[in-house]
């Protein structure tokens, strides 16, 4: 029997479509011991890095491993320790998705990339001008001492003073240090592979973009050491950091 719902809006609730910001975890292995080790190495020193963020488990990388069985209850327990809230899964095999649903996750729709609309002929580009600080960037104008940490959540970070050894600057976007950078700089902290690190004096203990990092154990090339430099990521999360001297 088909039941027609009344046309008037209920007085106590409304149902609307919603778009929410989500963190996506690309699961590359079903080995939870290996995953726990790497999560601890990456976030063990930052217990407040996540703030109960909703998360989607992307199982697409597991497709190359066939029907790799995922212990979803154990995986969810592991992720809860880092203050993330897995709410959905996508990209897995039929068996993996069935196990994800049995563990209480929703099935997230696959992403559909629409081709860009055709563009009309563009006018000649104007002459380059000095770039203004990104809107909403977090600005720090005091030196950062050893043990201090600054995190620009969801935005860029601009530092006008020295980042001393033992200090740490983190941003979901770009990091600009208009002074010596001698501590740790982690840009694209939530996976933004387009993020960049710019410093007027590059002498870092560690630089990282979207999880790809380089430590001071590997000496910097002389053309960028202690010089104005831009650091960018080439090749995505499987790529490498490239350092370009700035004129």
From TrEMBL:
NCBIfam families: minC. GO terms for biological process: cell morphogenesis; division septum assembly; regulation of cell division; regulation of cell septum assembly. Cell division inhibitor that blocks the formation of polar Z ring septums. Rapidly oscillates between the poles of the cell to destabilize FtsZ filaments that have formed before they mature into polar Z rings. Prevents FtsZ polymerization. The gene is minC. Pfam families: MinC_C, MinC_N. Belongs to the MinC family. This is Probable septum site-determining protein MinC. The keyword Cell division applies. Interacts with MinD and FtsZ. Residues 139-227 form the Septum formation inhibitor MinC C-terminal domain. It comes from Ramlibacter lithotrophicus. InterPro entries: CAP/MinC_C, MinC, MinC_C_sf, MinC_N, Septum_form_inhib_MinC_C. Keywords: Cell cycle, Cell division, Septation.
